[in-house]
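Board notes (copied after class):
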Amino acid sequence: MANIYPFRGYRYNKEIVGDLNKIVTQPYDKIDKEQREEYYQRSKYNIIRLILGKDGEDKNRYEMAADYLHQWINKGVLKKDNNPSIYAYWQEYEVNNTKMVRKGFVALGKLEGEEGVKAHENTMEGPKADRLNLLRATEANFGHIFMLYSDPERKINNLLNKAIKDRNPLINVFDDDGNRHLLWQITDLSIIREIQKDMNDKTLYIADGHHRYQTAVNYMNECHEKGWTSNKAEGFENRLMTFINIDDPGLSVLPTHRLVYGLDSFKSNDFLRKVAQDFTVKSFNNRKELYTEMKQEQDKHVFGFKGKELDKYHVLFLKDEEVMSELLSGKFDDWRKLDVVILHKAILERYLKIDEKALQEKNNLEYIRYREQALKKLKTGDYQAVFLLNPTKVSEVKEVADQGERMPQKSTDFYPKLLTGLVINKLEFKKQIT
């Protein structure tokens, strides 16, 4: 069951902060050091100070975030909506020269166990500890959890369309990639109740935000252990989420590529000779030929490879899926046949010794969305090789989650990301035993 609730969100006051384009950011885990500095310079009210701030002279960054949040609410920088609401959230973007619109809505979702909410990626302890410290200090949800649900008839999107018809959005901003993000407030209780009813029998799948979801569950458990009570929608048993229909034609998934570094005695030609035991290797003179080959053969298990010291580009084709059965005999076929699993288990772990321990310790791999940027970083940075992937299919995400399996980290990149700073949920609960 998917229990969703309207809430009184906090939104930036444009009369004080001015241009909202200078306020919003990508999700915290997509922000590198350079981008963080850029966000800091855009506005003194940029939400980076709340989600990924800096230490103060006598306070850590979590305490600083709590101070900023308290000050901004008191000064009216952040204003609470008068009525319980859900928020229609449209994203207009372009992929492969095709214009797309992804439609969803923002609401609070009840935290559930595995039977109600399906995850598909593994989580790591470091990011969960970081987000938990921020949640403890601020008692607020800033970033959204990106949830998928199935609605082939698009009943919920039709209700959203009805609710915002002939209305201008409250928020109209662009992200760093030039994608447009639009937000409307919906307070019509009849429409909200219909959406709640239609969502009630849905299974939810986490598209993005696995660490944030598990952090919210951990925090809820902490609060229960302390005897705190949560009797409002804005309590700790619910979490800020954006819900997207998995059957929406506007849904896109991009691949996340892998840059390799820090391997002792790594040589690309030696690697290619060894990996030829399980993979057919084809060479190309330029990256455009490589891209074309990967696209044409995307229904096969195919990977792009470029070694730093090599002039040519290479494509690796898995010869026989049976090797995955041998490596992972106790796993489901659907999971064993995922490209990201084949890359991690049959290539990175088997031939380069980049195992689960290295991944947990964040050694040897860097993840990057854009293949051109990955190749540029390979050329200019301290990297040894890059592996390029085709995108994971949405149907594969659902199948793996339904089987209770987990993909390797960064297996999916649902594009575009949900912006942080459009609407905030401040938790409300009692800190005493009743």
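Comment from the instructor: The chain has two domains: 4-252+416-426, 256-390. The first helix runs from residue 14 to 17.
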